[in-house]
Amino acid sequence: MKKLTSILLIAATTVATLAGCGSNSASSAPAGESAEVSANETDAVSASAEGSTYDDIIANGYITFATEGTYAPYSYHNDADELVGFDVEIARAVADKLGVEARFTETQWDGIIAGLDAGKYDAIANQVSITEERQQKYLFSTPYTYAYGAVVVNEANDDITSFEDLDGKDVALTVTSNWAEVAESYGGSIVATNGFSESIQLVIQQKADATVNDNVTFLDFKANQPDAPVKIVATSDESTKSAILIRKEDAALQEAINGALAELEADGTLAEISEKYFGEDITKEN
Fold first, then answer.
1. Residues of the chain falling short of pLDDT 70
2. pLDDT at res. 286
3. Rounded to an integer, what distance in angstroms lies between the CA atom of residue 115 and that of residue 262?
4. pLDDT of residue 177
5. Cα-flanking dihedrals φ and ψ of residue 129, to 5°?
6. Which of 125, 154, 166, 172 is the most exposed place for a label (fewest CB within 10 A)?
7. Helical H runs in 112-243?
8. For the chain, what is the total number of helices (H) and then of strands (E)?
C-alpha cells in the first residue's frame, strides 16, 4: 500500500480544493451570513469578525464559523431550511465546550479561506484537509475526520479483495480524478463517468467491476441507500485528515478548540455525531 502514499497526499489537496463535491459554486465572493444570524445581529457579527482572538470570543459570547451550507452531509440545509450536518454539529459541540454560542457564515468554497484571511469569521468548519502547504500559513485543530481510499465492488463480486486485484479490471471513475490515477497505478482500466453517483450505479448494475473513492463518501451513500448491493473490500493505509482551520496568529483559539475536541472525543460526542451521519466512527484513525 506504499504506492498510494504520494497519490493520497495529492488527493488530500485536491479533495480540499474541491471540498464541496455537492457544491456547484463558481464565485469567489463569500455569500451572506447564514439565516441563523438575524438582521439585528449583523453588526455584532461584523464587529467580532474583524479578527477575533480567543479572549474576544469569550467576551462576546460567540464564535463564528464559516461553512458552505451546500455540502451534504457535512454542511447543508434540511427540509425545514435549518443549517445541519456533520461539520455543523461538530462546530456547535466545540462552541458548547468553550461556553459560547456557535454562529455560522455560509460562503462558497472558492472564497472561504480568503474570508478567514480577511477576518470575516473566526474559523472554518468545512472538511478542510490538512496539507503541508496550508500548515505553513494557518493553524489546524486536532483532526476530526479520517478518510481512507477504498475499493468498492458489487456484493456478488468475490474476485477483487485488494487494490492489486484491480489489475485488468474495469473501474468506474471520473477520468480526471485522483482516484482514477490510483486505479490506473494498479493496472485498472477506467470506465469514464461523471462522478461517484454514476460510478456506483455501474458497479451495482455490474457494468463495471469496481470503483475507488474515499470510504467516507461510500459510508454516506450506504447511510442513504442501505440496501444497495455494494461493499468495501480494501482500504488504504494512508488517510486524508480534515480539521478546523484557524488563522496563524490565533494559537490561543487553536489550543481551546483542541481542548474542546479532546473532551468531545472522551465523552463520546464525536463518535455519536459520526454514527448519526455515517453509521460508524470516522473521527478516529484506523
1. 1-52
2. 86
3. 27
4. 86
5. -75, 145
6. 154
7. 112-117, 132-135, 178-185, 196-204, 215-224
8. 11, 11
User: Look-up: residue for cell 480567543?
Assistant: 54
pLDDT value at position 87? 98
Q: Does residue 253 contact residue 60 with C-beta atoms inside 8 Å?
A: no
Q: Whole-angstrom Cα distance, residue 104 to residue 63?
A: 8
Domains in the chain, ordered, with CATH? Answer: 16-145+240-278 (3.40.190.10), 148-238 (3.40.190.10)
Q: What are all long-range contacts of 12-16, with beta carbons under 8 Å and residues at least 24 apart? A: 12/129, 12/130, 12/131, 12/240, 12/241, 13/129, 13/131, 13/133, 14/178, 15/127, 15/129, 15/147, 15/178, 15/214, 15/240, 16/127, 16/128, 16/129, 16/131, 16/134, 16/242
What is the value of pTM for the model shown? 0.79
123-129 and 76-77: which strand pairing? unpaired
Q: What grid cell was written down for 85?
A: 450536518
Per-residue pLDDT reduced to its tens digit, 75-121 = 999 999 999 999 999 999 999 999 999 999 999 999 999 999 999 99
- What are the pLDDT digits (tens) for 40-84? 343 444 444 444 479 999 999 999 999 999 999 999 999 999 999
What are the residue ranges of helices labelled H in the chain?
4-17, 42-48, 54-60, 86-98, 112-117, 132-135, 178-185, 196-204, 215-224, 251-266, 269-278
